[in-house]
Amino acid sequence: MPATEVVNLGQVFGDDKQTRQFAERYFRVQHTDLLFANAAVFVEGSAERMLVPLFIERDFKALRSQYVSFLDIGGSHAHRLKPLVEKLRIPTVIITDVDPSEEKEGKPKKNGEPSKRLIAVANTGQDGLHCGNQTLRVWHPKLEQLDDFKNPTEAQLVWSEVADCLVRFAWQLPVEDAGGSWPSTFEDSLVLTNLHWFKSLMDEKFDEDGEEIEAPKGALGSVAKRAAETESFPELLVALHALMHSSFDKGEFAASIFEMISSDEPIVAPKYITDALAWLEQQLEPIQESMI
Questions:
Q1: Residues with Cβ < 8 Å from 201, sequence gap 6 or more?
Q2: 204-216 confidence digits (pLDDT tens)
């Protein structure tokens, strides 16, 4: 028999003051509909928040009919809402960045002991890289070495420690069509997955009247230019890493891609995202069947 549990948000986060303050401010600012949803999708940033719902609308017919709450919370902060996810017990997907990092010497501690800090780098296959994402390090799958994230098992992808509460984690994985290159962000994963399309944006093109079509400018133009000019996948990853860590406008980039997808351009979602959304759709199948 269906039952309803009343959740007292004031008690959900226990004595963790930092987590409680974060959650209270987030809910106050975002006015989230998470409390009423059939499922939740946490995303890393503005680009995913704009494009993942569009991919669902286009590619996941059953999922788009469900009440899915999208939260742009940043991968490094998603673990702050872990207590609430445990209480709500709705299928949840956390789409986040694997954040390849090198360990560097930091400022000495007060007692004089050396300290270590993680510095984000482009992953071109170098040894000894770490995962810099706190959610993946402290919530699930609780791994630290980057290579341990390369071929995840189902148990490493799905957190199931609380009864009737499944959370599917999704992070960038090597792209087979890009020679097994391993992207670090949603943006460079999107580029590697659709590399031929991005390169084609810089090709000489003409409209119906024979007038030359101008190549894209702004954020999309910057990405397309690097895709067209670099000669190897490692070189492209280094170029994209430098671009993403400059004054690159990810919101403008996402808006341009949104417009292109809306115009039926053949842009494919990265596989790590489509796999996670397929999992979520499968979790909600019983709900769909009960509505028929």
A1: 215, 216, 220, 221, 224, 227, 228
A2: 887 777 788 888 9
